[in-house]
Amino acid sequence: MEDRFARHEALLGAASAGLAHKRALIVGVGALGSASAERLTRAGVRRLRIIDPDRLSPSNLPRQTALHEGDLGALKVEALARRLKEIDARVIVEARAARATPEGLPALLEGVDVVLDGLDNFEARLWLNDACAAAKIPWIYGGVLATQGMSLTITGRPCLRCLMPEAPPPGLLPENAEIGVLNTLPWLIAGVQVTEAIKLLAGIAPRAGLLVMDPWRGEFEVRSIEARAGCACVAQ
Ligand SMILES: [Zn+2]
Q: Which architecture, in CATH terms, is 3-235?
């Protein structure tokens, strides 16, 4: 073990060295996904697959700490891939400038050990939920809105459809573009997601329950959730 990772090795033991051989998929590299990619790289995970169709705009900069003014206008996945290589030249980044779709997700999941959610809508998250269930790959939901963030680690049941069987109709939930988002929040939620990813990759049992935090109000809680009778995850 090289000195670079000695402090994780002290925590995780031999499992720390194994991170270099694991592959993580990050679906969406906005505020959450770019923060997750950076921390995973710094933790020593050497194979990252990232997907996002968007280019960096000025309104992204308060939250996307891995990207800079010099990246404005660039595809987020390409700018992020460059930054990750600067952090650790050995990281292998597969960058896809595309949107996650039900048809495309199965191929994206091939060879993946863990998935981190960086999406910004529930329709796509439920597609990801179903694709991960079919492939039996754990994934970590993360979402932020205004001053509230949530995260749930899904390794079978309960799943995201237990909480939300169908995506809400467009316009029902407010969007960050309308009501804003606290710029510290994505880092906190991404930190929780990456913590869970490292545990899963190291063979350590994940945390149960839905984490709900509002750092602006100083509220942090874990709500227990049950598998929902009739959900596809219960039948599997
Ligand atoms: Zn379920």
A: 3-Layer(aba) Sandwich (3.40)
Backbone angle region of 205, left / alpha / beta, with phi > 0 → left and psi within -120 to 50 → alpha: beta
Q: Residue 192: left (phi > 0), alpha (psi -120 to 50), or beta?
A: alpha
Residue ranges of domains in the chain: 3-235
Predicted TM-score (pTM) of this structure: 0.95
Q: What is the pLDDT of residues 23-81, one digit of tens each?
A: 999 999 999 999 999 999 999 999 999 999 999 999 999 999 899 999 999 999 999 99
Q: Is the pLDDT of residue 191 over 60?
A: yes
Q: How far is the CA of 154 from the centre of ligand 1 (A)?
A: 9
Residues having C-beta closer than 5 Å to ion ligand 1: 159, 161-162, 231, 233
